[in-house]
Description:
It is a single chain. This protein is mainly beta. The chain is built from nine helices and 39 strands.
Amino acid sequence: MHRWLKLINAVLPMAVVLGPAGGLALAQAPTQGVVNEAPYAQQYESHLTVRADHSSTSVVIQQFKILTQSAIASVSQQKLSFVEGMQTLTTVEAYTAKADGRRIPVTPKNILTQDASPELPGIYFRDLKQRTIIFPDVGVGDTLVMTHKRETAKGKIFKQFVESLQFPRSAAYTSVKITVEAPASIDLRVKATGNNVVDTADESGGLRRHTIVITPDTYTPEEAGAVSPLDRDPAVLMSTYKSYEELGSAYGRLALPKASVIPSIAALANDITKGIADKKAQAVAIDAWMKKNIRYVAVYLSSGRIIPNDAAMVLKNKFGDCKDKTTLMLALLAAKGIAAEPVLINLGNAYTLPGPPTFAALNHVILYLPEFDLYDDPTANRAAFGVLMLESYDKPVVRVSAGGARLARTPAMKPDDHTADVKTIVNVAADGAVTGATEESNMGALAIALRTAGATVQTLGGSVAARRVLQNSLTPGTGQFDLGNFTETKDPVAIKGSYTLDERFKVPPANTRTTIPRGMPLTVWPGGFLLGTRLNGRKSAFVCYAGRQTEEIEATFDPALPLPVPLAPIAIDNPTFSFHSAMKIEGRTLKMHREFVSRVERQVCPPDLEAKIAADLNKVRVNVFSAYAFGTSPPAVASKPAGVVSSQPGYGKYPDGAAKTNNTNRNFVNNVADTVGKPPAAPNPVVAQNPSPAQSPPPAQNPSATPNPSQPVELTRVVAAGQNLRLEFLYWIQPDCSSAGITNVRIVEAPQHGTLMVEQGQGFSSFPRDNQRYDCNTRKSDGTLVFYQPESGFTGKDSVILDIIFPLGQASKRHYSIDVR
Length: 821
């Protein structure tokens, strides 16, 4: 799922191993070490045997102790994947252990095997399979037990052995034990990373054995925007490769010959570059042709086969995954004498390459062109040449060439390379009628977001998209877009729009304020997105980006109307970012200029930075969404800036007269959809209707269709005294079953006789059969969980009011009447 969508205005709905029943024994899963908020407690024990020919057998037992009602939906179906033809996966045993001692076995009809990626074209990885275990009769207090045996044949592609196991704290592990046995002759390297890990190694009779015991830290839900658990939580990595260079060279020996320059490819390269003499301009033309003509099919590098198809086959099919597209572009560049190298990288939130070398942090392939010293991603179909996906900056990589492989790093982002500029005109007539226009011009990674938004507008139709964008800003109206050059992969990209609001502007009474419309920008406001989601008390490093966002608004008022009073200028300059806001009256026009610049030097920010920037970022939000008082004539403009804030650590007082408000999530307005992982699998994954969370669907199929978001939806809940209640599981799922981002919850009215807890977690969706996401119901999805805990001893009535903001910006206010019995 992509972070691009997190830059886009919300209204555009966008994109294990086991052991034989008698061989391993797990004690009853304890809850010690897992805080009460954990929905379940998990134990894991495995025994892996690697043979001299690098074939292997692994046996795994897993137990899941159900601690809350919410865990039943999220844990009672377990999924495992395997590669047919290379692996066999046998379910030795699976059952529900009831609290009274009964065992209810999983019947064969409830063990399903199917394609792991059924939406992919037929020639792509039909050997990647998924096993689903559906446990029967599951209740709170039960324990789900499953034992599996996996046989892996010796490598048909790579002749060596690699394996990785991860144990994130968010998975509520209470104990982990792993035994690995292999002949000493194959020199299998085993390393356990993270805290509270004990690795005991011994060697006897030519056999080397590792016994790894992990005592997991306290359960902690994933923090919004945090780096990958691979970068911080326990993992076990196993490999017979001595280095990432050796692994990269092995990939190159098999992948590079696939990029042969045959006559048809040479002819195509000549046709694409006809009339272009400059080598870099030729590379630009080839990149643009690839992105326009070769469709991307999303398959992770580590899934199924690892070696690409021949360039000729990719050209014939006109589609491919990352390694296929890279292979064809390698061939086209080679035909013009332009050197290029495939690059193994992580397209996600992992920013380290832990050893020993495995594919745990390598799931994508891009290109490096040494002649120009730049990286390019032919799968980034909405990026200009040399512009990478956000997830690809500042990453360790393995560059592969005919001479071998080497470790390198993609460049960190620079503010001037990634920019978003929005200019809006607002015209207010004497009768209050409001018309205007907005123009956006973006570059670099931020241009990808604008092109993605442009594709959504084109799919929805300009008038529908305009109405949704305006409604999202709480200024309903009509409009149209001029999409300009959004289909071209050349920066800058510019999109224009014009609008007319439905409601007339009303001058506020004396001593009150009102907002001024911000037009219909397609991307997020200055200060949003680049530095991530605000989260007090962060414990994990988080992903952050460098860039520059500017906003200019010119609001012109008819002479019959009073003029707004400009806000005092603001200048925030701290080591992480700067924000400057200035306003003035010229004639009948209020002119506003805002500029936000994130200057982070790397794309991983330490957790303590959150506390240092939160107050200043709140000042930015307050300024961007401020309301204005109106006078009878243009006010005098101060001769020097007022309200300048020195924002070094230890400072951060509000300037005199500035509004003091609580920090709310930046996604409240111009929400942006989070995506991670891989380039969009479809040109526009956001168009289809997406039902609201199953527990309390709004009146329409899409949360954006709620007739009046200001009027709360009335809902009722019942909970036993002293018990936790899962009030909601909130999610927004794209057609490929990936999450579109985080659903934000704001407590408008807290309960009088209990407490609320909001956390990120997983659960099962419940789409109706006629929804294209119906199949997503069989797999766990990321979402936001809201829990209610009544006070000890309380029975009676309680209530809660929540503002719920979905990842794409649709809002819902919900009033819950809770009956505690």
